[in-house]
Amino acid sequence: MNFAELELLRATAKESIKLRLGEEPSDNFKYHVLVCGGTGCLSIGCQNTLDAFQKAVDSHGLQDSVKVVVTGCMGTCEMGPVITVFPEGYYYCRVQPEDAEEIVSSHLKNGKFVERLCYHAADGSVQARKSDMTFFKKQKRNALRNCGLISQTSLEEYIAMDGYKALAKVLQGMSPQQVVDEVKKSGLRGRGGAGFPTGVKWQFVLDQQADQKYIVCNGDEGDPGAFMDRSVLEDDPYSVIEAMTIGGYAVGASKGFAYIRLEYPRAIDHYNKALCRAREVGLLGNNILGTDFSFDIEIRVGAGAFVCGEETALLASIEGRRGEPRPRPPFPAVSGLFAKPTVINNVESWANICPIIINGGDWYASMGTEKSKGTKVFTLAGKITNTGLVEIPLGLTLREMVEDIGGGVPDGKAFKAAQTGGPSGGCIPAAYLDTPIDYENLAALGSIVGSGGMIIVDEGTCMVDLAKFYLGFTQDESCGKCTPCRIGTKRMLEILERITKGLGKEGDLELLVELANSIKASALCGLGQTAPNPILSTLRYFKDEFEAHIKDKNCPAGVCKMPRKGLKS
Amino acid sequence: MGAECKCNCDQEKKLDALFAQYKGNSNGLIVVMAAIQEVHGYLPKDFLVKTAEELGVPLSDVYGVATFYAAFSLRPRGRHCVNLCLGTACYVKGAPDVQTILEQEMGIKAGNTTEDRRFSLDLVRCLGACGIAPVLTVNGEVYPRMTAEKVNEILAKYE
Amino acid sequence: MATVTLTIDNVKLEVEQGTSILDAAKQIGINIPTLCYMKEINAIGACRICVVEVQGARALQAACVTPVTEGMVVKTNSAAVRASRKMTLELIQSNHPQECNTCLRNNNCELQALSEAMRLTEIRFVRPAQSHSKDDIDNSSPSIVRDPRKCILCRRCVAVCEKVQGVKCISAVNRGFETIVAPPFDQGLNDVNCAMCGQCSLVCPTGAITEVDDTGKVWRALDDPSKHVLVQTAPAVRVAIAEEFGMEPGTVSTGKLVAALRRLGFDSVMDTDFTADLTIIEEGNEFIKRVTEGGVLPMITSCSPGWIKYIEMYYPDLLAHLSTCKSPQQMFGALAKTFYAEKKAIDPASIYSVSIMPCTAKKFEAQRDELTDSGYQDVDVVLTTRELARMLREIGIDWESLPDEDYDAPMGLSTGAAVIFGATGGVMEAAVRTVYEVITKEAMPDINLTPVRGMEGIKEATLKVGDLEVKVAVAHTLGNARKLLDKIRAGEADYHFIEIMCCPGGCIGGGGQPIPTNLDIRLKRIAGTYKADEDLPIRKSHENPAITAIYEEFLGQPLGEKSHKLLHTHYVPRGVYRKPEGLPDKVPSGDHH
């Protein structure tokens, strides 16, 4: 494929999805019915819904005017199976196979939408179309731009949505330095957790003299409660492939590796299919788009170790070794994969690259806050009405996130805290609900943006138990290389286990804090250095809960099994 | 994943091809081991010795890698792999109770295989299906919104 | 050379670019404590004891792996640094058996010394879980004991096994708190591709890897009046044992060593150096025979048992290159229960033969099945230098006031050529001194073969011996040995004669030597070795009158029938992980017994 052929394909492909974009289509289709095929919906039976739908469409003889498309995750995982009907964008939730007939006969045949299947807000109001839904209204989707809108592995639909426009632009007239400058200008910061400026990283690698450089995509998404990378890889794999190709051009690398965790078989499958297709049409491999630029990507499947999300551990794993982090410097930009200069970015970071190239760094930087530019994907989960994937401009307040997008805490319970950043992060109590979400603010509160996991907990959650959960996680996932993490997290966990069994004693909290601060300061890698965060932040806001466990042998939330009062053990 | 070795000759050929591809190249260690695990359901010692010899990696390193990654098993697995997600969302929504019942019903602790090799039970880290927490998978099939009450009914489906 | 300027503890200094904070701090008189770090071999920043505060850095930095940068401001002793180091130490100790008094490394343990220096007074954790138990102790090997309870995961042993010896029979196993350094598949060291060299035991900062302690066996023999207990001492022991008593490394203390052994009650104190001279005669003649009669070349020395096990495992196809000479220890052992027994009219069954060696692999060698040519196990027990020192401390030896005493006849007299067996290149030099004169029948103009001396990994020399240009090579460490063997396998080695020693620096750096053994100490022991050579009246093996005597009285001819039976041996192709196919059971396959 060359540039002209790409544009020709785009023109044709665009015609077929115009209807979804609110434009007048030139074909005969009146409706596009998009069935969410994300992992959430898939596991609650969207396949049956899809089959029923197809059948109903056929039986009504609508196959020429109604197009049924399986897409990736639309974001509202709690409401699956989900269906969107274009051109209007009506949004049907929890659509069972038996609902298909009604939607077809009422909506697709007679133009009357089915109100009972639409989203009902907490106040009982109906938000029928996507554009009516508070869940979507406050979002701005860059990384997730195609998720839920196009068929997951369709190159044509990807191209129709401006796919490969960025790569064409780059190859047709941007120097590597110009590409790097654009990314720098965007202010994009690493979306995997550390938040290091992506453009700066690229510049380091561009500046290195080396016979070989590498591009790596970190798809070892492991934070419990974070699944945005899976969604991007499953639902929009080409966006990552195109971005990595651009990265290769920008820094002078001809080879890339996508490291995807084993627990995401569909992501591996979709990404692999997309790789093959891209290679087949000349968008990957030798002489991409007829130019003299060549680049290819290999998938490496993670073998089940959380620590491999740490970049040096991930590189060790690609090299076939134990995923143990090593000290930096040297940074991967200088000596990375196979000791060559390496750009390593997280999936979500990659997913932002193409829009930045197409619209310019300034455009991206116009979103977000002073130091935290652009948009960030969060996974909203736990005790929240609307569980799902959410992409917001940084700077939105936590309250908007929880109450407007998330629809509040269900079952009339009270919001207690938002846990952000997974096992490396911390909790934010109700008093800070009006904090604008960005890297700096969350750090100041003792938490982090991290990879974007956001777990909402209500009054029924014991914060000591939650802290113990996170610590148990990191302790279990510690690689065992450095002392503070290997033994320190074990000792912290032992103390917390005693406390939650009613065996806490005076001095435990002081020792816990001393230990936590020491581990934070002295551990070798990010996993160890951030492992104490959930403890420290919980102690900061919920110290009274710890004290109730230790002094009164009482779990205020009623979660921990305490020795019964009045009984001597 | 988790299926018993069916002595599939094609798969053996695939392994041989991988051995050839990575001859003398330690970088292929995890790729080769993953393939062995896929074909045999676990990592038989003879194959790890062969891996060490073919790739030129010390056997101690092969073993070090095998014991580092959760995906690798040095013992044969059960006929059915039961994975309970213990991600945060699943945890706060009651996965620990499901774990208790699963362990009770199978008579094993998580991370083990029943004596009759019917089930292997593992706790896994966030499957990314937080919207339908707590999540259980059996041989890859997903069971959403798990409760302790559903356990028996689900296990009964797998002989 | 580019330099950078930085500030450490308020002192401004200029150091070479690329210097670590650890090394830079040394220049202002600060020794930052370390555990996992080992210069040029292990810099992994794992233990986190050497952390320092670097201005502007989010977390503390490990001084061993952090290079200095221009304008860097470092604090090596801030409150945060001290608190962190102490906590890290407390954590290590919380997973370490508190049994220092009964540990082999008591009073010579880096962890213990550090805990003392940091005044660690208490371990505050309540019943802390222990990652490993007594059941995990590996007693399988005749040479080395592993006690995983005491392992602090510094991985110095792994690094030395991998980077110096090229073996790596142990590696990090498991993950997280359960991580341990171990051989694969829960096997013992005896069951895997361990060369038994014991370098791991030299670098272990604690008592997690030690020599097998055989002192009890020796005490029992000494206490048994029915036993005639004799002892031999290896060349490298005499330049190292004094370190155990606070003397300078390299101090030559042959006479004191003899006296000390007599104090222990040995019935006869003789010298492995005698059989080192004998080795030169046998090996020299074997070499001449191979050169003149077209035998397998290059011929390779066979004194170092770690090396022998290594070639049997990794290069079984090249075993025919090995000299068939037994090591001096085993020649001595075979002669002790034949020649010596005959001469002294002692029933060989009552002889208990002890050897004092710088080496853990010698323990393995002594119990090899084939080394029983006297009709008994030729050497009954091997003690390392460290174990001997332990026995001497037990009886309260005051090293400095010991007199110098002489070895007993008939296997006590030796030459400078034998002494230098202890240093890398020494066997080659000793062999050349003899081969030259046997072939040319002329005195060698300069008997100091300096090109093969010193710590360089592989050394070469070419010398003219009569009409023959003899090309020799010397390698020490198995890593360097591998390079030469690969050359031989590829048919690219045009050497006639190769000396290989298993340990860095040769036997003076052996796995049974005093701890610490490092480069500086190795160099001093080597210097001591050559000084001992120069100080001896006879410096060529063939001029040793005791050697002439044993041929006249007992052996007959070099390579003769008796020599063949008692002084030569065969080797066993072992393979690395399994027995190699298509090779005979032993090499040479022709039986000589």
UniProtKB/TrEMBL annotation, chain A:
PROSITE patterns given in the database record: COMPLEX1_51K_2
InterPro entries with a match to the protein in the record: NADH-UbQ_OxRdtase_51kDa_CS, Nuo51_FMN-bd, Nuo51_FMN-bd_sf, Nuop51_4Fe4S-bd, Nuop51_4Fe4S-bd_sf, Thioredoxin-like_sf
Gene Ontology molecular functions: 4 iron, 4 sulfur cluster binding; FMN binding; metal ion binding; NADH dehydrogenase (ubiquinone) activity
UniProt key word Iron: yes
Species, as recorded: Desulforamulus aeronauticus DSM 10349
Pfam families assigned: 2Fe-2S_thioredx, Complex1_51K, NADH_4Fe-4S
Gene3D superfamilies, per database record: 3.10.20.600, 6.10.250.1450, Glutaredoxin, NADH-ubiquinone oxidoreductase 51kDa subunit, NADH-ubiquinone oxidoreductase 51kDa subunit, iron-sulphur binding domain
CDD domains the UniProt entry points to: TRX_Fd_family
Protein name as catalogued: NADH-quinone oxidoreductase subunit F
Keywords from the UniProt entry: 4Fe-4S, Iron, Iron-sulfur, Metal-binding
Domain NADH-ubiquinone oxidoreductase 51kDa subunit iron-sulphur binding, chain residue ranges per copy: 464-509
Family assignment from sequence similarity: Belongs to the complex I 51 kDa subunit family.
From TrEMBL, chain B:
Cofactor(s) in the UniProt record: [2Fe-2S] cluster
Keywords in alphabetical order: 2Fe-2S, Iron, Iron-sulfur, Metal-binding
Positions that bind [2Fe-2S] cluster: C85, C90, C126, C130
GO molecular function: 2 iron, 2 sulfur cluster binding; metal ion binding; oxidoreductase activity
Textual note on the cofactor: Binds 1 [2Fe-2S] cluster.
A Pfam family reported for this protein in Swiss-Prot or TrEMBL: 2Fe-2S_thioredx
Signal sequence range: none
Tagged with keyword Iron-sulfur: yes
CDD domains linked: TRX_Fd_NuoE
InterPro entries: NADP_DH_HndA-like, NuoE-like, NuoE_dom, NuoE_N, Thioredoxin-like_sf
PANTHER family: NADH-QUINONE OXIDOREDUCTASE, E SUBUNIT, POTENTIAL NAD-REDUCING HYDROGENASE SUBUNIT
Family: Belongs to the complex I 24 kDa subunit family.
The name this protein goes by in its record: NADH-quinone oxidoreductase subunit E
Species annotation: Desulforamulus aeronauticus DSM 10349
UniProtKB/TrEMBL annotation, chain C:
Keywords recorded for this protein, A-Z: 2Fe-2S, 4Fe-4S, Iron, Iron-sulfur, Membrane, Metal-binding, NAD, Repeat, Translocase
Gene Ontology cellular-component annotations: membrane
Domain of life: Bacteria
Pfam families: Fe_hyd_lg_C, Fe_hyd_SSU, Fer2_4, NADH-G_4Fe-4S_3
CDD domains in alphabetical order: fer2
Cofactor: [2Fe-2S] cluster; [4Fe-4S] cluster
Domain spans labelled 4Fe-4S His(Cys)3-ligated-type: 80-119
Cell compartment(s), UniProt: Membrane
Residue intervals of the 2Fe-2S ferredoxin-type domain: 2-80
GO biological process: one example: ATP synthesis coupled electron transport
SMART domains from the UniProt entry: Fe_hyd_SSU, NADH-G_4Fe-4S_3
Residue ranges occupied by any 4Fe-4S ferredoxin-type domain in the UniProt entry: 142-172, 185-214
MF annotations from Gene Ontology: 2 iron, 2 sulfur cluster binding; 4 iron, 4 sulfur cluster binding; ferredoxin hydrogenase activity; iron ion binding; NADH dehydrogenase (ubiquinone) activity
Matches recorded under SUPFAM superfamilies: 2Fe-2S ferredoxin-like, 4Fe-4S ferredoxins, Fe-only hydrogenase
Family, per entry: Belongs to the complex I 75 kDa subunit family.
Protein name: NAD(P)-dependent iron-only hydrogenase catalytic subunit
Source organism phylogeny: Bacteria, Bacillati, Bacillota, Clostridia, Eubacteriales
